[in-house]
Amino acid sequence: MLVVWAVLWIAALMMVVINRHSAAFRWLGLVAFCGGTGALASVMESWITTYEADPDGLHTAAMLRHVQQGCSWTSYYGLPYAYLLFGAGYHPNVIPARLSKLLPWAALIPIVIMLPLPINGGYPVSYLPLACWAIPYMLIGTGLVLTKRVNHPAERRAHLIVTAAVLPAVLFALAMNYTMPLFGVYRLWRYNVWSIPIAFLIFITSLFKYGFMGVQLMIERRRLDYSLRAITSGTAMLNHAIKNDMAKIKLFADKIKRGGAEDVDLQQDAAVIIRSAEHIEAMIRSVHERTQELVLQASLVDLASLIQTQITMLRPAAQDAKVTVILNVPEHASPILIIADAAQTEEAIRNVLNNALEAMAGGGQLTITLTGGKRGSILEVSDTGHGIERHHLHKVTEPFFTTKGSSRTMNFGLGLAYSSQLMNRQGGELRIRSEWGRGTTVTFSFPAVKRSIQLSWKQGVSNVGTTDTNTNHARGG
C-alpha cells in the first residue's frame, strides 16, 4: 500500500501542476488524491499498531486513529464525489451550464448527511448508506466518460488512453471498496494494488509518448512551443519592413478609390485592398515584438459579419479557381456572438479558406456553415478537394509541416499551427476531419458567450440605432 499511496499522490500532483486550468484535470487529480488517502489510511495501521504496543505511545496511537479515520472518510466519500465531477468536466456538453455550476455543491449533500452517522463494528464507514449514493455517482461518472464522442483520430486515441487509465482502476475500486462490503465481504481494498500501478504506468507512458487529456510532455512538444515562438519572433522582425509598404499600399489604394468614383467595380477592388492593408497592420500590432506568445485583444465579435467579410475578399480568387462558395447561416435574425481577437481570428479563418481553395485547383465546392447555440458557436469550412492522407492528419497542426512546396509557393506549414494555437488560447478548439480524395472539413469551436454579455451588446446596438434615427429626424432626414 505504501507504493499505491506514493503513486496516487504523485499522479495527483502532476495533474494539478501540468494543467491546473482544466476542470477535468483538477477533479481527476482529486480522484487520485482521495485514492491515495485511502492507501495512507492502510499504511497508518502498522504505525498505530507499533505505538499501541508501547504504553508510552497510547496517546500518539489515539491521535493517529483520528487521523486514520479522517483519511478513510476522505477516501470513501471523496472518491465517488470527485469522480462524478471529473466525468462532468470531461464531457461538459451533456450537462446544462446552470446545472454544472450547482453540481459540485449538490453532490456534497450525501456526504454532509453521512458525516454525523454512527459507525459500528469497527468499520471506517457505514457501507449501506454509503453505497446508496456512492455507487450511482461512480456509475454516472463512468457513463459520462464512455459517452463522450470524438471525431479526430488523435482525439480518439486520447479518449482511449483516458478510458484505459481511469476506468479499470475506478471500477475495480467500485467493486472492492463499495459493492462487496454490502455482501459481508470486507478488506478487499487490499487488491487495489493490482489495478492502480497499471493505471499509473499507462498515465505516465501516454503523458510522454502520446499525451493525456491534451497535455503532452515530450521533446516534440518542446519543439512545437519553440517553433511557435519562432513564428511570432519572425513576425516582429518583419514588422519594420512591412509597415512602410502598408502605408504606401493604403495611400495608392485610396488614390485609386477617389480617382474611380464612377466605376463601382474599381471602388470595390480598392476597398478590398484597403481592408487587406488594415488587416495586415492589425496583425502586426497584435503580436508582441519581443515575447514568445500571441497577445490577444479579445472583444465581442459578430461571427456572421466576420465571415461575410472574408467571403467578399475570397470570392474573386474562388471565381478564378472555378470554386462555388456556399454560405449556410441560420435564418433567425439574432447575431452569433463570440469573444475573440477579431484580427487574429480573421487570419486563422483566412488560412483555412486559402488552404481549401488550394486543395481544389481543378474547381469544386466550398461550403461554410455557421451555427450558434447555448453551448457555443461552430464554424465549419468544408471543401471537395483532394483531402489529407490519414498518416498526415495528426501532423497538419505542427509548425513547418506541409505537403506543399515551400520555397517557390511560399507555403511554410505555419497556417494551421497558428490557427490551432490561437483557438486554444481563446478557449476554443480547431478540429480537422479529412478523407483522401473526398475533401476536408475544418471546424472552429468557440465557447459560449454569457447571456448577460449578449443582452448588453444587443442593447448597445439598439441604442446606437436609436441615436442615428433621432439624428436623422433632427436633420430632417
Count the domains. Answer: 3
Main sheet properties = 5 strands, mixed
Global geometry: elongated
Q: What order do the helices and strands follow?
A: HHHHHHHHHHEHEEHEEHHEEH
Radius of gyration: 29 Å
**Strand arrangement across the biggest beta sheet:** 2-4-5-7-6
- Total strand count, please? 7
> Structural class, judged by helices and strands?
alpha+beta
Mean pLDDT reading = 79
* Helical residue percent band: 55-70%
Distance between the termini: 83 Å
Strand content: 5-15%
Low-pLDDT stretches:
217-221, 288-292, 406-412, 464-477
Number of helices: 15
Structure description:
There is one protein chain. With about 475 residues, this protein is α+β, with helices and mostly antiparallel strands. The chain folds into three domains: about 220 residues, no CATH class; about 80 residues; about 180 residues, Heat Shock Protein 90. About 65% of the residues lie in helices and about 10% in strands. It is built from 15 helices and seven strands. Strand 4 and strand 5 form a beta hairpin. It is elongated, with a radius of gyration of 29 Å. The C terminus is likely disordered.
Task: Report a brief summary of the structure.
By secondary structure, this protein is α+β, with helices and mostly antiparallel strands. It has helices spanning about 1-20, 25-50, 60-90, 95-105, 110-115, 125-145, 155-180, 190-210, 220-260, 265-285, 305-320, 340-360, 390-395, 415-425, 450-475, and strands spanning about 300, 325-330, 335-340, 365-375, 375-385, 430-435, 440-445.
